[in-house]
Amino acid sequence: IPHKTEAGGVRLDLADEQAVRSAHADILDTVRQRRPDAAIEGVLVEKMFPAGGREILIGVHRDEAFGPVLTVGLGGIFVEVLQDVAHRAIPIEPHDAREMLRELKGFALLQGVRGQAPADLAALQELLLRVSRFAAAKGPRLRELDLNPVWVGREGEGAVPLDALVVLDPPSH
Fold this sequence. Notes:
By secondary structure, the protein is α+β, with helices and mostly antiparallel strands. The protein has 5 helices and 6 strands. Strands 1, 2, 3, 4, 5 and 6 form a 6-stranded antiparallel sheet that branches. Strand 1 and strand 2 (67-74) form a beta hairpin. Helix 3 crosses helix 5 (121-138). It is globular and about 45 Å long.
């Protein structure tokens, strides 16, 4: 289900097993009402990452002229509103990853403003390179990849995709 938040499929800050069980039942009920067409195979329970991380989008789509294109942007749930993204044809090199981040209008937010510590730019750049390598390895089968949100902590804390959508075409024989 793309846009799980809008479908009622996300719960945060669950403190104990009972809260997780209750959220599980609530998620299934809500999502079945909002998305009756969805094939629900389960729910994912993840570690809650600490406040203070930045939310980033990393995606790959196929462009008819350029082939696979990597996108990075600020936003999480606000990416459509902010429309602050940078694109590169795949594969990318380390200098491309650095340049993509610096092209973002909100790059200053990643550098740290108003007392916030800088984000882990090295980890975010490495994740961009890993996604580029993954997309290149999948070749034309990869139709779409969406990592949103990617939690980016302070320097040294890493960059972790919290949700992913990958659409592959079936293998041709």
